[in-house]
């Protein structure tokens, strides 16, 4: 059996090294925010345990090749907790040295305040505006399933990965996540797994003051598999929850993990004070003591044993990647044409002279822009076929986004290249970002110009992330 994290044995008894590794993540977050004199220590401290279990036991990734096409995707939707992601990237061996952690939030560093996919290796999508990551991941999971439907054979599961994310109270309060969750539930995205950092705190204080609905029931009603973890430091329960989510193949999963923001801080744990400001030197010292951290350890200390243990990801990742390369070789030998198409789609290479098919419109004649767009799409889809994945927010006929021959993408027909987004502009645009970031497809979406106001925050991120 391969030694990919996916095949690692379940956690039975957490080890001292597990605890020390989790505390390393917490301490790096505290130290980096303190040195920068700004940032968000509380979320990484509370979510460190779930992130650790996910990254060391489940996530399939190759730190030496962050663009490996069959990697699992991980999204930190609560982007303000960026130090959680940077600590994981650093510790598991990505090209993010400790120096970059020390330069957190500094101009020109690879560790900006919120994760930016075009800046930091291993960051899958830019997050920060709450809810965007949630909806972007839905698009990634759609792209994964779509490509699997097009290319996988019984013997060759070429496209075979999960989309994971950590989402926060703020993410789940935002409207875009409701749109996206509804879409994901309808689509039955069984390989989408979100861990909800349910710490009951946001900036203004307890979520009691503004957010009291029954989140698990809401997600169940939208067709999700929901699983509760009562204690966010219970590694066994977290591991089991992720395993349960992976064995659920028809529904997306929300794992509601009860956590403590600022975990370990004697005076700030479970309070909004831990959310978005440095803890202060004195409180950091007390917190480290409470966590059992060596009292003489300098800031940014990474114990040798933790460094070695976390860096095993480079080895398991390289092995998983090599196995996939071998699988690809046999696929290519058995299905050369399909393999060539797969490679072209994944590389994002457009056919030569793709624009030669574009129609010209005579001057002096009048034509609605949506009609011109429809004619252009007819030609482009004719040329590029299923590489283009289109869709509309319930204005298909009006906006002429559908081209003859495009089948609907539904749970029962995942290879269809036309997405019925429903009246959900914001989630539509973010999902399109997710598809573009995932790679292998070129998404397009349509709505009336005036309703594009409803998707503008996702459009802004398309630009920031340099996505087509
Ligand atoms: C769209 C959007 N609105 C507002 C903010 C500012 N903001 C950052 S974090 C946050 C809420 C914090 O609550 P939660 O998501 O539960 O994070 P935690 O307190 O657990 O770190 C807000 C309102 C934002 N990042 N994005």
Structure description:
By secondary structure, this protein is of the alpha/beta class. The protein folds into two domains: 5-321, Rossmann fold; 354-464, 3-Layer(aba) Sandwich (Rossmann fold). 44% of the residues lie in helices and 9% in strands. It contains 17 helices and eleven strands. It has helices spanning 16-36, 42-58, 82-92, 98-102, 132-151, 169-173, 175-187, 215-221, 235-247, 281-290, 304-310, 312-334, 336-347, 369-384, 396-399, 425-438, 456-464; strands spanning 73-76, 163-168, 192-198, 201-202, 205-206, 225-229, 253-258, 388-392, 408-409, 418-420, 442-443. The strands form three sheets. The chain has a five-stranded parallel beta sheet, sandwiched between helices. α7 (175-187) packs across α16 (425-438). The chain is globular. Thiamine diphosphate binds next to α2, α6 and β4.
Task: Please sum up the structure shown.
This protein is α/β, with parallel strands linked by helices and 468 residues long. The protein has 17 helices and 11 strands.
Strand content: 5-15%
Share of residues in helices: 40-55%
What's the CATH class label of the largest domain? Answer: Alpha Beta
Give the number of helices. Answer: 17
* Helix and strand run: HHEHHHEHHEEEHEHEHHHHHEHEEHEH
Largest sheet: 5 strands, parallel
- The Cα radius of gyration reads 23 Å
Let me know the average pLDDT.
97
Write out the distinct hetero groups bound to the structure.
thiamine diphosphate
CATH architecture of the largest domain: 3-Layer(aba) Sandwich
Structural class, by secondary structure, is alpha/beta
- CATH topology label of the largest domain: Rossmann fold
């Amino acid at each position: 059996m391969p030694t990919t994290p996916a095949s690692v044995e379940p956690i039975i008894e957490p080890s001292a090294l597990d605890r020390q590794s989790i505390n390393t993540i917490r301490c790096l977050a505290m130290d980096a925010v303190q040195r920068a004199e700004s940032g968000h220590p509380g979320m990484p401290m509370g979510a460190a345990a779930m992130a650790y279990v996910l990254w060391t036991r489940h996530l399939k990734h190759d730190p030496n090749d962050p663009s490996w096409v069959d990697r699992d995707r991980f999204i930190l939707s609560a982007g303000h907790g960026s130090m959680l992601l940077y600590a994981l990237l650093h510790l598991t061996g990505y090209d993010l040295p400790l120096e970059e952690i020390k330069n957190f939030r500094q101009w020109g560093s690879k560790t900006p305040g919120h994760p930016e996919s075009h800046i930091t290796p291993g960051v899958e999508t830019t997050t920060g505006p709450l809810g965007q990551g949630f909806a972007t991941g839905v698009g990634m999971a759609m792209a994964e399933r779509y490509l699997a439907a097009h290319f996988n054979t019984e013997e060759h599961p070429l496209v075979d990965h999960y989309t994971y994310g950590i989402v926060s109270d703020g993410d789940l309060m935002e409207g875009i996540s409701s749109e996206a969750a509804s879409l994901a539930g309808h689509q039955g995205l069984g390989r989408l797994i979100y861990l909800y950092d349910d710490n009951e705190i946001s900036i203004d204080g307890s979520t009691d003051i503004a957010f009291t609905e029954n989140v698990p029931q809401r997600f169940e009603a939208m067709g999700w598999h929901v699983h509760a973890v009562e204690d966010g430091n219970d590694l066994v329960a977290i591991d089991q929850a992720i395993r349960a989510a992976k064995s659920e193949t028809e529904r997306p999963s929300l794992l509601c993990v009860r956590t403590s923001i600022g975990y370990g801080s004697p005076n700030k744990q479970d309070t909004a004070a831990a959310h978005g400001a440095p803890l202060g030197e004195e409180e950091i010292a007390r917190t480290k003591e409470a966590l059992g951290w060596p009292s003489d350890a300098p800031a940014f200390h990474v114990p040798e044993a933790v460094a070695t243990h976390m860096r095993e990801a480079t080895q398991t990742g390289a092995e998983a990647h090599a196995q996939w390369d071998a699988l690809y070789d046999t696929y290519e030998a058995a299905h050369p044409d399909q393999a060539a198409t797969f490679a072209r789609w994944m590389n994002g290479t457009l056919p030569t002279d793709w624009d030669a098919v574009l129609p010209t419109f005579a001057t002096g004649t009048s034509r609605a822009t949506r009609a011109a767009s429809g004619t252009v799409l007819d030609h482009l889809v004719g040329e590029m076929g299923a590489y283009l994945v289109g869709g509309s927010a319930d204005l298909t006929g009006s906006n002429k986004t559908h081209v003859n021959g495009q089948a609907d993408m539904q749970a029962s027909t995942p290879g269809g290249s036309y997405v019925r987004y429903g009246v959900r502009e914001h989630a539509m645009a973010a999902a399109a970002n997710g598809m573009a970031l995932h790679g292998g497809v070129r998404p397009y979406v349509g709505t009336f110009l005036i309703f594009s106001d409803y998707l503008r925050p996702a459009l802004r991120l398309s630009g920031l992330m340099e996505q087509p």
